[in-house]
Amino acid sequence: MKSGEQFNGKKVLVLGMAKSGEAAARLLHRLGATVIVNDALPYEGNRQAQELEKLGIQVICGHHPIELLDESFDYVVKNPGIPYSNPIVEGALKQGLVVVTEIELASMLSEAEIIAITGSNGKTTTTTLIYEMLKDGILQPLIAGNIGTVACEVAENATENHVMVLEVSSFQLLGTEQFRPKVSVLLNIFDAHLDYHGTKDEYVEAKAKITANQQKDDILIFNTDDKFVSQIASKSKATTIPFSANQRLTEGLFIENETIYFNKQPIIQTSEIVLPGAHNLENILAAIGAAITMGAKQERIKDVLMTFSGVEHRLQFILDFNGRRFYNDSKATNILASKKALEAFDQPIVLLAGGLDRGNNFDDLRASLKNVHTLVTFGQTKDKLTKVAKEAGVKSIIVADLMEDAVQKAFDQSNEGDVILLSPACASWDQYKTFEERGERFINAVQKLSTI
Hints:
- The chain has helices at about 20-30, 45-55, 85-95, 100-110, 125-135, 150-155, 170-175, 195, 200-210, 225-235, 280-295, 300-305, 335-340, 380-390, 405-410, 435-450, and strands at about 10-15, 35-40, 60, 75-80, 100, 115-120, 140-145, 160-165, 185, 220-225, 240-245, 255, 260, 265-270, 315-320, 325-330, 350-355, 370-375, 395-400, 420.
- It is an alpha/beta fold.
- The protein folds into three domains: about 10-100, NAD(P)-binding Rossmann-like Domain (Rossmann fold, 3-Layer(aba) Sandwich); about 105-305, UDP-N-acetylmuramoyl-L-alanine:D-glutamate ligase, CATH 3.40.1190; about 315-450, Protein-Tyrosine Phosphatase, Chain A (Alpha-Beta Complex).
- Helix 4 packs parallel to helix 6 and helix 15 crosses helix 16 (about 435-450).
């Protein structure tokens, strides 16, 4: 880690706890900053707040008092989930304070070069693939961000012999000022998180910050099939490497005659790849580009692609029971993710979907429901999904309460040879704390069903 002397003696407000807030507070405290943490969760039962207080960090819990801004802070480190409409955030910006998320802190302190990956869909799979591909390379990979350990914790232990493989969201990117990855990967941009960003344009601008500070000696790997991504790439100062799953390119990564090429050099036959789903070819192309750029060996890349079958909660095969194959795609928190999951299968599908209502309609999902004969829907969006499923000609539509009820109803409506797929197309927060909790509930219900 770099010295971090710029924080010594400074006064920093950490707004919002969770994992990233706690990690940022601990790190800044160790660097000699005066840290005040403000978290909405009441002190009683707030284990993180109590632990930080033992270190001598001042913690204010239960609400966000605007009077905090009278403290004359030098920095505000904001939890990514806290919107910019929060009065403290608005007030801090009016005062001209630097308001950042902890990935900015990580990038300021990391001795390791950073590969940053973002997109509306496929971030976790691509991040994991890059991490695995780099394991036998010159630099030792460290995985961080949304997928693993908080970025600033990883940065604290990173040396110049490491490379940080960092999954980043639009929420995190919006809170950056100097963030400059050595390699940035931009997968796709779809209507997502509009409840947070307000408009599609603002969402695109947030994603564009992944390459905003890159220079000619940095690399941007981008999906040339996505018009919004291509627009960002056209304005980047980085050296660009395009990829396409749909067209032959004169340079970059593409597929021809069932072979993946990088700058016209063959890498692997698509028939050798284990990871299911045509949509994953885009993730694979991007991962290959980033891995080779950072020194991965082609033999290692092939080994990974011939053995890697996916990540938890992302089109994760659970089991085969009575001729039905169960898949957990709980990480499909938007329409695009569910579209791609549905298009990965040729078999008849029983779909479990629904969750938090972010104001989207689901018209874009309609065409992808062609193989779905039964929809089991739940959560705030159940009525919207019911409407679209009827329009798509789905034969059976059933409303369920919690996941256990949905799994049983899905099985009851299924036939031998069916895929039973949890791919919610929605965030989980109306019924579950995280998409991981939702996925685990699905897995447990499936396993219980198979033992009856």
